């Protein structure tokens, strides 16, 4: 396990792992500012309402509803399955946003 992976795992463990399926207006605003740029560049091609993944992650509410699963795949580095992967910085942004909810 790399140093960055250990950091991400410790971040996840330190902040708990509960998900909140209801997004507040602040969650949505923060999601648009922090998560959407990463989502648009790496996740959007599959995770839109009619996307090939059949899991729409195009809103803060969807991310909160599926927070535990998203955290797992980010730590396991299993998404995205093709093409360039996420950088450690992008993973930290996504996990940080989820953990702050």
Q: Can you walk me through this structure?
A:
By secondary structure, the chain is mainly alpha-helical. The chain has a domain at 30-99. Helix content is 59%, strand content 0%. It has 5 helices and no strands. It is globular, with a radius of gyration of 13 Å. It starts with a helix and ends with a helix. The mean pLDDT is 85.
How would you concisely characterize the structure shown here?
It contains five helices and no strands.
Brief descriptors of the model:
101 residues; mainly alpha; 0% strand
Order of helices and strands: HHHHH
* Strand residue percentage: under 5%
Helix content bin: 55-70%
Contiguous runs where pLDDT drops below 50 for at least 5 residues: none
Mean pLDDT: 85
Q: End-to-end distance, in Å?
A: 26 Å
Number of strands: 0
Which geometry do the CA atoms define? Answer: globular
> What is the count of DSSP helices, taking H or I runs of 4+ residues?
5
Largest sheet: none
Task: Look at the helices and sheets and give the structural class.
Answer: mainly alpha
- The radius of gyration over CA amounts to 13 Å
């Amino acid at each position: 396990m790399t140093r960055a992976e250990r950091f991400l795992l410790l971040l996840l463990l330190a902040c708990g792992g509960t998900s909140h399926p209801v997004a507040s207006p602040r969650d949505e605003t923060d999601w648009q500012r922090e998560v959407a740029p990463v989502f648009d560049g790496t996740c959007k091609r599959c995770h839109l309402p009619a996307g090939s993944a059949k899991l729409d992650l195009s809103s803060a509410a969807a991310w909160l509803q599926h927070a535990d699963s998203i955290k797992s795949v980010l730590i396991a580095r299993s998404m995205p399955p093709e093409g360039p992967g996420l950088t450690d910085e992008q993973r930290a942004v996504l996990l940080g946003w989820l953990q702050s909810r």
